[in-house]
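Hello,

Our lab assistant flagged a job as stuck in the queue for most of the afternoon. It eventually completed. Since we weren't sure the result was trustworthy after the delay, we are filing this so someone can double-check. Below is the sequence as submitted and the structure that was eventually returned. Let us know if re-running is recommended.
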Amino acid sequence: MSSLRERVLPMAVGLGSCIMLALIDHFSSVPAFAIVSAGWLAILIVLFLRLEHRGGLAPTLPILIGTWLAALSILTISEWRLVTVGILAIAGVSTGYLMRIHGRVPSPSEWPVWRRVLMMLLVFDTYALVTALFAVYLFFPAIPFWFLALVGSLLMSASALFIWQLYGYQRSNQVALPLCIVALASAECIWAIHFLPFEYGTFGLILSWLWYLMQLFLRWHMSPADVVWQKQRWFLLINLAFMVSILIFYIRWV
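-- returned structure --
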């Protein structure tokens, strides 16, 4: 019975997430958005809390909440049907996957796969939520931008902390200073970049890309081997070429 529940419940959760997002997209009204999004999130949280916890290594519940909010954010601000379909698929697969692994202790061969998937979800969540913050700034200019920058820096710091925890960096004396660096640097980047003439999707892409590199190098710095700069030469060159390509071919300078 337990094994049957472990197979069926993730599928039901994933399918339910797709249906809820489809309902929100179909009705496109504030009451429907509030009731369906908050109601389904509450159901997901209750399901996660009621499941037997067996000492799992991954912070699945915070990632679940972030992924649901990220899917709602992209669904709300996107006007492309292909993006909507993609968000439905991502939300369904990711919530079902998180339900499947919640509380489980992975085997040594499973853990690297779990860790990469969860890290990609955190990167996606960071991009989507930061993009949503810039959409709020553009659509609701009365909201003080310093408040949005503060919220963005806290979100990016939390995502970095969760990623570092996946890689075993959990001691407060180990992550406190890098976390402060991420928070301050993220706030500075958010404040500086909002003066550029970009749309919110571009803001989110550039900021999440810079944040990813920052948390990655700080994680390497916390490792016993530190950052081996010579080994990262091609990595840095590829990322530099990627950013130049984005600036030239993707961004519309308006």
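-- support follow-up --
The delay was a queue issue, not a problem with the job. The result is valid. The chain has a mean pLDDT of 84. The chain has nine helices and no strands.
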